[in-house]
Amino acid sequence: MTENKEFPMVSLINAPENPLKTIYLACRTCYSADYPCNIWEKDVDDAKMLKLVKKVLQSGHHSTIEHCQYVFTISGVSRACTHQLVRHRHMSFSQKSQRYVVEQGQFEYITPQTIKNAGFEDEYHVFMKNTAEFYDKMIEKRIPAEDARFILPNAATSSLVASLNLREMIHLANLRLCVSAQHEIRKLVKKMCDLVVKKEPWLGEYLVPKCEKNGFCDEIKSCGRFPQKVE
Ligand SMILES: Cc1cc2nc3c(=O)[nH]c(=O)nc-3n(C[C@H](O)[C@H](O)[C@H](O)COP(=O)(O)OP(=O)(O)OC[C@H]3O[C@@H](n4cnc5c(N)ncnc54)[C@H](O)[C@@H]3O)c2cc1C
């Protein structure tokens, strides 16, 4: 398989059962004489919890949202994309190894739309076919996969299990939903955010590009959606 319109494939396989209450508990514990186990047992309505949580987040006490962890499976993304994703140091990753997994025949790869638009699609596929054939030839000659992989392109797809807490999720969204981020990681992070917001709609206002959060754009090249930051 070389092309799939559904790429990247993203699933949210694990999420906190009650993130709002968990964050509320973290916030209340800071300001209450009561034991946290007692605070947890009390029934508090969502509006009251949300009011406190929003206030605490606005004042920058972001450690309170680190207790909420999300686990995703990700497939059908290029190595170019995963290389950017793994730069996020507060995320945890388990990625398909190009040392232990030997490609069989044509490896899966991503074809950017700009290459198709420029009329290079056929040449691009020929390049990938030739690369796969040379890779196979090396494997047949008993060159280890960890060395044969040196010719695999950035376009080759990968799979990961990726996890992160809510604080990092918001940071990831702020950076990677911005139009200056590369299109593939933007699409991937958008899918991750949509899955979280589907479960917790109140998080929608936090999982946004940084300009929406700040009310201004700090990029050198602005898309014009928000006014640029003035010194
Ligand atoms: C549009 C765009 C273009 C980019 N272009 C390039 C590029 O050309 N070249 C390149 O190399 N990278 C590039 N990057 C990657 C970028 O430099 C970061 O490595 C990546 O976005 C991770 O961001 P981060 O370090 O803020 O986040 P994370 O690693 O997720 O960390 C989150 C936050 O934790 C804190 N933190 C984490 N580690 C430390 C630490 N060691 N010390 C102090 N504080 C820490 C910081 O506040 C940080 O913002 C680009 C990113 C974007 C979004």
Provide the descriptors you would attach to this structure in a database record.
4-stranded antiparallel β-sheet; 4 strands; 231 residues; binds flavin-adenine dinucleotide; single chain; 44% helix; alpha+beta
Shape assignment: elongated
Judged by helices, strands and strand pairing, the structural class is alpha+beta
Characterize the main sheet.
4 strands, antiparallel
**Strands side by side in the biggest sheet:** 1-2-4-3
Would you give an account of this structure?
There is one protein chain. This protein has 231 residues and is of the alpha+beta class. Helix content is 44%, strand content 13%. It contains ten helices and four strands; from the N terminus they run E-H-H-H-E-H-E-H-H-H-E-H-H-H. The protein has helices at residues 19-31, 36-41, 46-58, 79-85, 113-117, 121-140, 145-148, 166-176, 183-199, 210-214, and strands spanning 9-14, 69-78, 92-95, 157-165. Strands 1-2-4-3 form a four-stranded antiparallel beta sheet. Helix 1 (19-31) packs across helix 3 and helix 8 packs across helix 9 (183-199). It is elongated, with a radius of gyration of 22 Å. The structure holds flavin-adenine dinucleotide (FAD). Residues 87-90, 168, 171, 175-176, 180-181 line the site of flavin-adenine dinucleotide.
